[in-house]
């Protein structure tokens, strides 16, 4: 069953600086597909004027939970999508997608994929240095079957999403927890290597124990060696 529409949800907690580029990249990506695309931004207790940047989305949802799992869940709940042919796609406000990102997610779905986990690539390593980048590259797989789970690059059929219970209200790891529940239900996972998203090289992120914490641990390890 080919997707009847695509819903992209972007949680944002004080991302006024990053959100415009994220939304701009999504708007470019959606003109590459014939399937209708709806972009939903979920503002989580904003205090930095993110509301203005979010106006470029199709829908804006505001929550006050400071919880990325709850924010993602609120976005998909707002979009509805009881039609199992709806394709839910998730990314983050500090990410930019390639022009063919949605096209490739759609290609996987049309080929029968029910859940797709993509990879991430750091946009700018300049403030972290080549050794930290080398440590990251040494431990990060980019091939098909990679096994990485990122809420910044994840797609799931609406029927499977709702049957699994959707994103849990976790401050971090909500993406991993969702995939584990889908696997428990024996939903096949496509570990795709052809649709990376560009992400910021932050050392202090919005979600505890998230990607920024991983980069900081690599950077701190390198600093100790020096």
How much of the polypeptide forms β-strand, as a percent range? Answer: 15-25%
Helices and strands, in order, run as EHEHEHEEHEEHEHHEEH
SS element count, helices: 8
Major sheet: size, sense and barrel closure? 7 strands, mixed
Q: Strand pairing plus helix content: what structural class?
A: alpha/beta
**Biggest sheet: strand arrangement:** 3-2-1-4-8-6-9
Q: Uncertain segments of ≥5 residues (pLDDT<50)?
A: 222-226
End-to-end gap = 54 Å
SS elements, strand count: 10
The mean pLDDT is: 90
Shape: globular
Question: Can you put this structure into words, describing what you see?
Answer:
The protein is an alpha/beta fold and 226 residues long. It has helices at residues 19-30, 50-54, 68-79, 101-110, 130-139, 158-164, 174-184, 211-225, and strands spanning 5-12, 37-44, 59-63, 86-90, 95-97, 115-117, 120-122, 154-157, 189-191, 197-199. The strands form two sheets. It has a seven-stranded mixed β-sheet with strand order 3-2-1-4-8-6-9, sandwiched between helices. The radius of gyration is 17 Å and the shape is globular. The N and C termini lie far apart (54 Å). The model is unreliable at 222-226 (pLDDT under 50).
